[in-house]
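A quick aside before the break. I want you to see a complete sequence-to-structure record at least once, exactly as it would be stored in a machine-readable document. Don't worry about memorizing anything.
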Amino acid sequence: MTVVGFALIVLAISLVKCTYSLFDDTPPKPWAKSETGSKPRVQSEASSKASAVTACRKIVRRSAVYGSKADFNGWSRRYGHIGGALAVQEEVELMNGLGLMVPHTYRCQYENGQAQLIWLRPGSE
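That is the input. The structure line, written in C-alpha cells, reads:
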C-alpha cells in the first residue's frame, strides 16, 4: 500500500465519522465537555458530604494539640443544614497532654468548598 492509498483511507474514515456526527440527534451527555472546554460543575449530595467531612476533619486536626493522633470513628456522623450550608457533626478522639485519648464532638459547616469549625467540645453526644 502506498502513502497515497493510506491517506485516502484515513480521509474516507474521517469523512464518514464527520457525516455521522452531523446526523446524530442523540442528546449530549451531562458529563460531556461544554463548548468552553470545561466540565459542568454537577456535584451529587454524596460527593458534597464526602468533601465536607474531609474539609472538616482537616480543620479539627489543625485545631487539636496533637492533630496527627486524631481518631475519627465515623459511626456517629450526622448531617444537617445551617442556612444554605451543609453541617457535619461527628465524634472524634483527641490525645491530651498525658497521652490519653479523650472523646470530643465537633460541629462544622461546609459551603462553597470551604469549611468552618463551629465548635469542638470534650465529651460525646
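Two observations worth writing down. The longest helix spans residues 3-23. The beta strands are 71-72, 78-82, 85-95, 101-111, 114-122. We'll return to this after the break.
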